[in-house]
Write a structure and sequence with these properties.
Blueprint: H1 2-23, H2 61-72, H3 87-99, H4 110-117, E1 120-122, E2 128-132, E3 138-143, E4 149-153, E5 158-161
Antiparallel strand pairs: 1-2, 2-3, 3-4, 4-5
Length: 173
Amino acid sequence: MLARIKAVATALAVATVGTLAVSAAPATANVNQGYVMGSGTWTDDWGDEGPISASTRSYNNVVAMWQTILKADGYLAASGVDCRFGPATTAATKRWQLDRGLVSDGVVGPKTFAKAATRLSLYESEGWFYYDGLGSNFAYFGRRADGRWDMPAGLDLEWGLLSYTSANLSVCS
């Protein structure tokens, strides 16, 4: 009987540890989901995003997100936020990556997004965030209850989802 109790206790302990390991795992996203996504703690949401570049997913709202970060850090003019990953965005991305000790390849993948995420902070309440750029430059973001990230864009600051498949923010030309 004692052996059976020990076996059951061991099985429960293994199951509990397995459950804790699964629930403590970082958020995982997949570009095929179509959006910048997150779950659980927001601090690891961007570390599995991308890639976007001049040759991969080069025209969408996520590009505008990245351009907004480049603008906040002084690498891109406001007029450069247009949802198109062109030569100016590529050059700005390479400089941004080089200045942060990353491979300067112009591709914004998980490592580049994760480095940018280190400048994110909670703004007022859960679900609202700001990117702390150069000087007093900020970029604002939100994470909806379903885990999809969004941001305000354009003169009207209309909020739009950060989609890999749509370029429908008002700044998209």
